[in-house]
Amino acid sequence: MSAGRFAPSPSGDLHLGNLRTAILAWLFARASGRRFLVRVEDLDRQRSRPEFERSQLDDLAALGLTWDPPVVRQSERDDLYAAALARLTAAGLTFECFCTRREIADAVRAPHAPPGSYPGTCRDLTETQRAAKRTERPPAIRLRAEADEWTVRDELRGEITGHVDDLVLRRGDGAHAYNLAVVVDDGEQGVDQVVRGADLLDAAPAQAYLAHTLGLPASTYAHVPLALNAEGRRLAKRDRAVTLRDLTPDEAWSLIGASLGVRARSPEALLAELDPWKISLDPWIVTR
Ligand code: GLU
């Protein structure tokens, strides 16, 4: 059976914007008859903390959200990412990249290449050149993308076409990259509906292209509006009183409900009251 999901990174407490995204992800999944999964995206070992994983799951439960077990952790799924990478490499769809961030930032690009995109420097190195460079630094592994653009379907925004980059799949330090993990996990977990913050809209075409390259079915997306503070900046955990450390679940529901124009104070009431496909795409300005 198909599934939707909420995939937080356990690097802090969930703020009101994250909680609203979680509630909407639950609602999209349940309103379309899907399972709802929670995945802990703890690939970044420096920033992830088990205590935040616990508090995030507790906070979701405190809002009355339920999910289908098990909760999986990316830190325990390295074998899956390695297997996917090996498949791409066997198909000739990866290459070693020796560029530093600086070199990529400073590179000369084709006239229409998006800023920051990979300039292709290491795509066509000879084996002799690669052998020489390997003595300087361990390479990252990148996807050899064979399309420039890819189109995804966003349930709120329609068809979105965006740039497909030669994504990093494994970093020079050997860690599998976030883009690979997300795509492999969604595929392996049967996720075919990705609901998440609008900050990840630009990442969707390349992720969907990677999924296609791995032979995974296409997902639909719903990139929901971000929460902003009174200054118009993205809500952050440091903004005052925006997490369940300072708000009761009922206060959080009343703020989130008001932002969605509903009175619901529970997931079930929301399911009866709100059509998630009709939510406003304006950012939510949190002023309190
Ligand atoms: N783990 C990501 C975050 O917390 C979300 C990734 C996704 O939903 O695809 O921002």
TrEMBL record:
Cofactor binding note from Swiss-Prot or TrEMBL: Binds 1 zinc ion per subunit.
Cofactors, names only: Zn(2+)
Enzyme kind, highest EC tier: ligase
PROSITE patterns with a match to the protein in the record: AA_TRNA_LIGASE_I (PS00178)
Recorded GO MF terms: ligase activity
UniProt binding sites for ATP: K237
Motif 'KMSKS' region, residue range(s) on this chain: 234-238
Protein name according to UniProt: Glutamyl-Q tRNA(Asp) synthetase
Native source species: Aeromicrobium senzhongii
